[in-house]
Write a structure and sequence with these properties.
The complex is a heterodimer of chains A (about 600) and B (about 260).
Chain A: E1 4-8, E2 11-14, H1 18-29, E3 34-37, E4 54-55, H2 67-77, H3 84-103, E5 118-119, E6 129-130, H4 136-148, E7 154-156, E8 159-167, E9 170-178, E10 184-188, E11 191-194, H5 215-222, E12 227-228, E13 233-240, H6 254-257, E14 261-263, H7 287-294, H8 309-321, E15 331-334, H9 345-352, H10 354-364, E16 373-382, E17 385-386, E18 400-402, H11 419-442, H12 449-464, H13 471-485, H14 492-509, H15 522-546, E19 569-575, E20 581-587, H16 593-601
Parallel strand pairs in A: 1-10, 2-3, 2-11, 3-7, 11-18
Antiparallel strand pairs in A: 4-6, 5-6, 8-9, 9-10, 12-17, 12-19, 13-16, 14-15, 15-16, 19-20
Chain B: H1 2-11, E1 20-30, E2 33-43, H2 49-59, E3 79-82, E4 85-88, E5 103-106, E6 113-115, E7 118-119, H3 122-130, H4 150-160, H5 167-171, H6 173-176, H7 187-197, H8 207-211, H9 224-228, H10 235-252, H11 254-262
Parallel strand pairs in B: 1-5
Antiparallel strand pairs in B: 1-2, 3-4, 3-5, 6-7
The chains are: A alpha/beta (about 600), B alpha+beta (about 260).
Chain lengths: ~600, ~260
Amino acid sequence: MPDYQTHEYDVLVIGAGGAGLRAAVEASSRGVKVGLVCKSLLGKAHTVMAEGGMAAAIGNVDDRDNWRVHFADTMRGGQYMNNPHMAEIHAKEAPARVRELEAWGALFDRTPDGRILQRNFGGHRYPRLAHVGDRTGLELIRTLQDHTIHQGIEVHMECTVLDLLTDAGRIAGAFGYDRERGRFRLFRAPAIVLATGGIGRAYKITSNSWEYTGDGQSLAYRAGAILMDMEFVQFHPTGMIWPPSVRGILVTEGVRGEGGVLRNSEGRRFMFDDIPENYRSQTADNEDEGWRYTQGDKDARRPPELLTRDHVARCIRREVREGRGSPHGGAFLDIAWIKERLPNGAEHIKRKLPSMYHQFKQLADIDITQTPMEVGPTTHYMMGGVRVDADTQMSDVPGLFAAGECGAGLHGANRLGGNSLSDLVVFGKRAGEHAAQFAKARGAAQVNPDQVDEIARRALQPFERHSGPNPYDIQHQLQDVMQDMVGIVRREEEMQEALERIDALKDCAGKVAVPGNREYNPGWHTALDLQNLLTVSEAIALAAIDRKESRGAHFREDYPEKSAAAAKFNLTIRRGQDGSMTLGHEPVVSLTDEQKQIIEEMK
Amino acid sequence: MATATTTQTAAVSQISTAEKTVTFEIWRGERGQGEFRPYTTQVSEGMVVLDVIHRIQAEQAPDLAARWNCKAGKCGSCSAEINGMPKLMCMTRLNSLDTDKPVRVEPMKTFPSIRDLVTDVSWNFEVKKRIRKFQPRPPDAPDGTWRMQQADADRVQEFRKCIECFLCQDVCHVLRDHHLHDRFIGPRFFVYSAALEMQPLDTADRLADLRRRDGIGYCNITKCCTKVCPEEIHITDNAIIPLKERVVDEFFDPLGKLFRKFRGK
């Protein structure tokens, strides 16, 4: 019998980024006992990295904006693979969630008449992103964090959940350990909200921190939930690429929203060379019009730099491959040029993009008010994840909810910038609300002690082996496989090989040995994270092989076109009877008549 | 596009990737008991201290404990003392250090040691809970929203940049040398209090708390906190001194306070 401390809650929230905090606040405001578990300290989750803003059709800057336009933009961006009900809920509820943040102390940038200012972003027809300079995520997480601490929620910082516990198919709790001392913790809870974020650490070049090892997706999968859209991994077009140690760190799309342009080594604005048909009518056809758009001219159309992220990332890759890349294999992102158009341009850049200014100054010796940045694609976001009900965010496992990045459905094949922060609060709130309801209605479930023993036994195995592979090595090998073979451009044979390599790495992961003891031991933590990383990597590769077309973030060199047949289904993944990963096709959720009409009108 | 080409040449970072051997002396131990251990590894110029820590973890010491998250100076997790200076490891470039000599990395001294570079910063989270929460005035518009000018937001936004790295707490002598954790909340929470007190919508009053429970009087404005702030927040000038002035006005200058109230300020 392993030693463990037991905690009892009505609702347990796993993850303390925007979605987790919002879910916890909501559940506790409904009078249930809430526990919150997070792998880092409070306020450090990846939400803190979000820069550009939070999309909500509040229409403060352009009153032509409303939920219908936001809905249509989100569906178009997702190539109609989205769950339209989630896209509608999101577009309708985001404004209230933004205003609520202001009531809790968030300080957004202002319009001249004192309302919340909104900025342009890729794929959004009107200026829609409520923002605070280029540190909107920090404002969001701090506001929610500071609100949470007065709500009587018990927070377990630096605590990792190893597995979910089930009782005859429903959720009974979770089992994990605190990272500081390595002691086991049992959390009994009839309702659990997963808000664990993404999978970026499966790739070598990523904007994500160590935390993003696909925990929520894997925990849910092992507990019997269905994953969906796992082939859709977003590669953000603008990550830092030089010096090597900063490779992957995000450069906000806000740079382009403020007038930044992309050029190749010949000085050409290559984004004008390839404008997709479904965006042509909304996109500027000359440089001057694009500039006017970024400065708020309502008659101008947006510059091609603000096309969707999947497209911009592929264009940069094309320039590099065809020999027109920047010296370190990317493209030039130039914001300094706006000094030609704006008096005090340098000051303007520092005020609108302060953290970008500092990031480049400190990490790359570059003054972005003087010289262009070198940028290239970086693994950024997982559109897929746990399949959930649009209204309640409950997965296929009763009592198991998912919100934010680890859930699937809102973003379809590609997420628009700014739709993530709003996703967190819209669906975080809903998940918290329905988890509380579920817990009240159903009460506690039974924890099976054998399941707990087995999880604990497996977790301690790396200490029992005297020799074995180094967990960091396995992680690095996996990152190379995913980066090279299941990355931004995909081919069948490579992905088949990736699956074989992942299989081999699974064997290695079962043999890892770690030195030292259980107290704050990153080697052990890395070893335990491997299982989740391998699970999501396999799911991504399997789904990416099966989708024999190119759509949104998923680009197949061997199937470069969209396929009408493949447009009809979402790919699902579940654990089969024999324990192996099983693929399925589910028809895409159909549009209501009103939704059809909106999409038609906005074409 | 002649101008674009010129600027692009300049854009290429001059950072070299030639490898060099350096020695890091890293504090290893648990709960205050430990020693500096030398680790020799290959580095290149663009690297930051956190990269070296990661390389040592992967190649030599898998159980070397260190906190980190964003690796871009935005989350405030990787605070440590590098050659005696409180810094974020992810924002400290090797070319800012003399790598001909061993580089010393040790945990923040003001907080209890847990293991290696990781300290117990939980006191900070407890202090924050005690500070009166934000209480907005009633909305200005019928739709439940507020109006405020950017200029009014600006001065609070400076404080809201804080990434809670706690380097200011680490360097503050009231905490570091005098250990007045039970009587003094430290620079981070004066910044936090200032952000609330100066929030244009806030109506709560924290001055009595600041004076008595939070010990603002202990700060004697040495500005060490301001010097180490990675976000370059003017902690002393813009947060602590104005709060001290408000406390003085409130408790020691009732006439002046009345006069200012009369003038509507």
